[in-house]
Write a structure and sequence with these properties.
The chain has one domain: Spore Coat Polysaccharide Biosynthesis Protein SpsA, Chain A, CATH 3.90.550.10. The protein contains eight helices and 13 strands. It has helices at about 35-45, 60-65, 100-110, 125-140, 155, 220-235, 245-255, 275-290, and strands at about 5-10, 50-55, 75-80, 115-120, 125, 145-150, 165-170, 175-185, 190-195, 200-205, 210-215, 260-265, 270. The strands form two sheets. Strands 1, 2, 3, 4, 6, 7, 8, 9, 10, 11 and 12 form an eleven-stranded mixed β-sheet that branches. α3 packs across α6 (about 220-235).
Length: about 300
């Protein structure tokens, strides 16, 4: 079986949640969402996990999170900080917001040595998603063939407000033709997707495939990423500018540099956008445990 790395983005603060939702306990014994992600990765054959975090959180992750499974999978850390940019760039004064998901992966590039899956720390993707990824990399020999694991929008919606999702469009062979980062809200019973980087708005159905940053990528993609980040960081950066990974992927697809196969997970997706989502997530994990899909004490 191919060696696979799980890369977990855990450096961002949850502005809508109101805190560091990546370390919010959701399991019966204090497990966080990333515990379940690592657990699923281990049982589908992944050999390494890289956490992208802030330097100030390193000791917490080592002593309170990763110590539970450090003997079961190789664990490494990468740091996303605002000063991890070229020396000839100065960010606007007062900038506190991280530079986005693309920058997070850029900061972890030197830790990645092969095929990898990139995920959010605050998204629960379910076992089937990791099975899909493991099977994809085991069977795909084409170095320009990539993967996105998606969900119907209704599965990823929050009852508590608008959410940001990547709206995925595919051809007849289920290869991605476009992936638009959007904020999706319910307006008078209609689901309206508003593109983050343009004025485009359009209606989607509840079955529309969306991505919540579960991507199967190749090491060679990091060269594409570095080139695009260099263009971004030397452009007009303001207090809110973000270097978004899905946008880099979209451009690479449209320029013919990569092909990305779209697959839909059968697993239940769970996530935290708002504080009010937390109780729902905890209850659903309890149900999964009662069904026998996860042990009550994950690392016992």
């Amino acid at each position: 079986m191919k060696k696979l790395t799980l890369v977990i983005m855990a450096a961002g603060m949850g502005s809508r949640f109101g805190g560091l939702k990546q370390i919010e306990p959701v399991g019966p014994n204090g497990e966080i969402i990333a515990d379940y992600s690592v657990y699923d990765a281990i049982r589908t054959g992944f050999s390494k996990v890289i956490f992208i975090i802030r330097k100030e959180n390193l000791e917490y992750f080592k002593n309170n999170i990763c110590n539970k499974f450090a003997d079961k999978i190789k664990v490494e850390y990468a740091f996303q900080e605002l000063d991890m940019i070229p020396n000839d760039v100065t960010l606007p004064g007062g900038r506190e917001k991280m530079l986005g998901t693309g920058h997070a992966l850029y900061c972890a590039a030197d830790k990645i040595d092969g095929d990898f899956v990139l995920i959010n720390a605050d998204d629960f993707y379910g076992l089937d998603s990791y099975k899909i990824a493991a099977e994809f990399f085991e069977n795909s020999q084409n170095s320009t063939n990539y993967l996105t694991v998606n969900y119907p929008f209704a599965v990823t919606a929050s009852k508590n407000g608008a959410v940001k999702r990547g709206v995925v469009f595919t051809d007849k062979d289920n290869y991605v033709t476009n992936n638009l980062e959007c904020e999706i809200s319910n307006a008078s019973g209609k689901l309206i997707a508003s593109a983050l980087n343009s004025s485009l708005e359009f209606e989607i159905s509840e079955y529309q495939p969306v991505t919540v940053n579960f991507f199967g990528l190749r090491k060679s993609f990091l060269d594409i990423l570095a080139s695009e980040f260099n263009k971004f960081i030397h452009g007009n950066i303001d207090l809110k500018s973000e270097f978004l990974l899905p946008e880099v992927i979209r451009e690479a697809i449209q320029e013919g540099k990569i092909k990305m196969q779209a697959k839909t997970s059968k697993s239940k997706w769970l996530g935290i956008t708002y504080k009010e989502d937390l109780a729902y997530l905890k209850n659903n994990i309890k149900v999964l445990i009662e069904k026998g899909e996860y042990p009550e004490n994950l690392w016992d």
